[in-house]
Specification:
Keywords: Hydrolase
Strand content: 5-15%
Oligomer: single chain
Shape: globular
Helix content: 25-40%
Number of helices: 24
Distance between the termini: 115 Å
Radius of gyration: 29 Å
Protein name: Glycosyl hydrolase family protein
Low-confidence stretches: 10-23, 647-660, 666-684
């Protein structure tokens, strides 16, 4: 019995010890069954000042180390434009790099996971082999699609989220919801439109990136709906598209009514849709830097609009509060944090920021309440997106990167984004749809066989690239060769002289011209001209043969001098990797449906000029866009009128339409054929 009592006492002591250990280890913030607010409060209460300030830090991957992340409890790491683990890195390379960083964070005292962010502004654009979608200006042209698909940008957001998650990244600096009011701005292609109503509509991309919040979800609270979704970032708050003369990072001169009615509405919509983060603009409003504007960041965004996610600076954004940048960094830290910035994209001098902010708090210049507000918002996003439960990525989604389904979606977006500005020298002789079968056609211009030019800035590198070797896709030339009949000879010359064009007896020509890639300030332009020698290419080709000119640009550019010489003109914006979307509409597999999201000026002297302005006199007005029918729909419409009880007429109609199309005469005789067919269908 004595032995039994000793054993029972040992068991009881062991149970007590285990329970004590379990109670010591239990922390509410680690318990996913607890409400998010409870978890945030519990974790905040356990954190030191140093750990809180660490959470407010975002550093670039080039200086990040496992030890840094562990020792400083770093809140976030990012890839700046073009910053990759390896040249042509695979999805697995990204996952492995990010997981290594994350293990450093998880090894910190409290094990708070970092959040990795990247620019994914038109697909997962930094990553080799990713699907590159049209830039936002092109998506703004899709809104009037005949059988309108309001889900298009949402589907693009969902596809982008999958490709981003395939590389282990849970956070994107997108979408840009600027309202570009002057195309001279180098970021105008990142804006959906000059019209805030279109920009508001396009905030549905957030629902694709993050998922649909449930109907009872509280307004202003961030929402991320699972491991195949990402936290989004609406940017750049606020007025970045309205700067004087379109100069990047400049001053937006506008009264409060104008700011609220033009530049603010899309932020309200984004917050209602659960956007997780908002990035502050480099620009100023009436002379006050937005990174230091407490009235708008804390007062209006967090107060009036009730935004509960976190506010992040732009790259070295607080440095630029002073002029020259970084000339009084302590003041910049104080101004930015007091304005309401929660996370600072430093991205390199982390110890300087940490030391300055620590001193400001210890000297009671910045209150602990402000620090707790910032860190609480950061933790709220991390808890809401499940980062504590699933901090490490796996390889389960790697096949989503550049998948055929996503490329098909991008191709659809391209064809819906193209705007037909001119079709034939007169209405009775349209050139488009082009015949697929012709003896010999010419493809010319600087942009016909250049994937980098086709994608624009923010592609692989910050400023984009030139050529076809930096990622995978289909150029316009490649798409043309795939689309035409096998008997059609396709001749390509980027800069043909007039004698060459005249001597070759081409049936028609397709000329692709436009802008070289650029991003941000590098794209600011007071002239808005196309690349040399593109103007002479248009002249040499279009004066000798019927031609379609395709403009590849991030905004309207000077084209009035060339209008009279071209037979057809297409605004293709920056379509991305899927050039087949261009040929889908050129050759009539689908009809043109896009509408201008921006007014197309006659001369740059008219700028800024937006729809509704007193001096409004554009070359092509906002919302302009010619429509065409696809060849299959013409066939269907024509045959349906004559098939009822007239099988012979039905066969004649089919034969005539396809004969005209595939022998290259559709662009001349389509209307004559339809008149004949209608006459036949009504004959006795």
């Amino acid at each position: 019995m004595k032995t039994v009592r000793i054993l029972m006492r040992a068991v009881l002591l062991g149970m007590v010890s285990l329970l004590s250990f379990a109670n010591a280890e239990y922390a509410k913030y680690k318990d996913p069954k607890q409400r998010v607010a409870v978890r945030v409060k519990d974790l905040l209460g356990r954190m030191s000042l140093e750990e809180k300030i660490g959470q407010m830090v975002q550093i670039d991957r080039t200086i990040a180390t496992v030890q840094f992340l562990k020792d400083y409890s770093i809140g976030s790491v990012l890839s700046g434009g073009g910053s990759t683990p390896l040249p042509q890195a695979r999805a697995a390379d990204w996952v492995n790099m990010i997981n290594d960083f994350q293990r450093g964070s998880l090894a910190s005292r409290l094990g708070i996971p970092m959040i990795y962010g990247i620019d994914a502004v038109h697909g997962h654009n930094n990553v080799y082999n990713a699907t590159i979608f049209p830039h936002n200006v092109g998506l703004g042209a899709t809104r009037h699609f005949k059988y309108r698909d309001p889900e298009l940008v949402k589907r693009i957001g969902a596809a982008t989220a999958l490709e981003v998650r395939a590389t282990g990244i849970p956070y994107v600096f997108a979408p840009c919801i600027a309202v570009c009011r002057d195309p001279r701005w180098g970021r105008c292609y990142e804006s959906y439109s000059e019209d805030h109503k279109i920009v508001q509509e396009m905030t549905d991309v957030i629902l694709g990136l993050q998922g649909d919040p449930p109907s009872n979800f509280r307004k202003g609270v961030p929402f991320v709906g699972g491991k195949d979704k990402v936290a989004a970032c609406a940017k750049h708050f606020v007025g970045d598209g309205g700067t004087t003369n379109g100069i990047n990072e400049n001053n937006t001169v506008i009264d409060m009514h104008g700011l609220l009615s033009i530049h603010m509405p899309a932020y309200s919509d984004s917050i209602i849709k659960g956007v997780s983060t908002i990035m502050v603009s480099y620009s100023s409003w009436n002379g006050e830097k937005m990174h230091a504007n407490r009235e708008l960041v804390t007062g209006f965004l967090k107060g009036t609009l009730k935004f509960k996610g976190f506010v992040i600076s732009d790259w070295q954004g607080i440095d630029r509060i002073t002029s020259p940048p970084h000339s009084n960094y302590t003041y910049s830290v104080q101004s930015g944090i007091q304005a309401g910035i929660d996370m600072v994209m430093i991205p390199f001098n982390l110890t300087e920021f940490i030391d300055d902010l620590t001193d400001l708090v210890k000297n009671n210049v910045i209150t602990m309440d402000r620090i707790d507000d910032a860190v609480g918002r950061i933790l709220l996003v991390k808890f809401s997106m499940g980062l504590f439960e699933n901090p490490l990525a796996d390889l389960s989604l790697v096949n989503e990167l550049g998948s055929q389904a996503h490329r098909d979606l991008a191709r659809e977006a391209v064809r819906k984004s193209l705007v037909l500005l001119k079709n034939g020298k007169n209405e009775s002789h349209p050139l488009i749809p082009l015949p697929k079968k012709a003896p010999k056609i010419l493809v010319a211009g600087s942009h016909a066989d250049n994937l980098g030019y086709q994608c624009g800035g923010w592609t692989i590198n910050w400023q984009g690239f030139s050529g076809n070797n930096y990622t995978r896709g289909t150029t316009i030339l490649g798409a043309i060769r795939s689309a035409v009949d096998s008997s059609t000879e396709v001749v390509y010359r980027d800069n043909p002289d007039s004698d060459f064009v005249k001597s070759n007896n081409f049936d028609y020509a397709i000329v692709a011209v436009g802008e070289a890639p650029y991003a941000e300030t590098a794209g600011d332009s007071m002239t808005l001209t196309m690349l040399d020698p593109d103007p002479s290419v248009i002249t040499n080709v279009c004066e000798a043969v019927k031609c379609v000119v395709i403009i590849i640009s991030g905004r309207p550019i000077v084209i009035e001098p060339y209008i009279s010489s071209v037979d057809a003109l297409v605004a293709a914006w920056l379509p991305g990797t899927e050039g087949q979307g261009v040929t889908d509409v050129l050759f009539g597999d689908y009809g043109f449906s896009g509408k201008l999201p921006r007014s197309w000026f006659k001369t740059v002297d008219q700028l800024p000029m937006n729809v509704g302005d007193p001096h409004y006199d554009p070359l092509f007005p906002f919302d302009f866009g010619l429509k065409t029918e696809s060849v299959p729909s013409i066939v269907a419409r024509s045959t349906s009128a004559g098939v009822d009880g007239k099988p012979f007429v039905f066969l004649v109609m089919i034969s005539l339409i396809f004969a005209l199309y595939f022998t290259g005469q559709a662009h001349i005789h389509t209307k004559m054929a339809l008149i004949l067919l209608v006459s036949l269908s009504f004959s006795g």
